[in-house]
Amino acid sequence: MPSLIGAYKEKVLIAQAKRSLSIVLNAVSAAKAEAEVENNGEIFISSNTSDATADIIFANMNVVQRCKANDTNCLRDYKVKYAKATNDGYGNYRQPETLSYFSRAVLADGSIIGVHQSQYSGSCQDYFTAWDTDADGNYILDSSGNKTGEHLVPETDCGHVFFDVNGLKGPNQYGADAYLIYITPYSYIQSTGTINDVISNNKLSAQKYDLNGSFKKTGN
User: The whole model's pTM is what?
Assistant: First the structure.
């Protein structure tokens, strides 16, 4: 019986994920139609704040509660756990995120949507800064403990959209009920939570793990 209940819940979450993704993409499409543009970069405008872009997107959603970006008191206890144990670069597990830097909204169906505006102009093409890591994902530090090997990584990204299909209900974990996508000029790229993989495989990607764990070096 417990396994059947688990399978049923998984089916429900996958169905909700499909619906939430559709809501997001339909809202973006509606915003473009209203503005009479085709490029998502003309909705996710680099000079906008996250709140300004969210105003455009949320206008096409059934919003019942709004949380401005960086308002840490709104949804203050809401955090999202990573889909699997992920190295923070220092040998520890990355801890759940508050996502307060997103402009957020709670919809009438209980889902939570977050919008973050990238500052990449024009074609939404730019670079983000990264540092060298070893085979285990740990930063390679110099004798003073500073990260080394700083380099730029190309990224196409007009903005980020986060969604939690059942809001505060939980488990509040990427790949289970929470997902992040990157909006590109004419489509989107799946990111944390791998929404496309979840939908195509009809299987959640989240894993159970202890947040207090830590990574060990390969071979130890």
Answer: 0.91
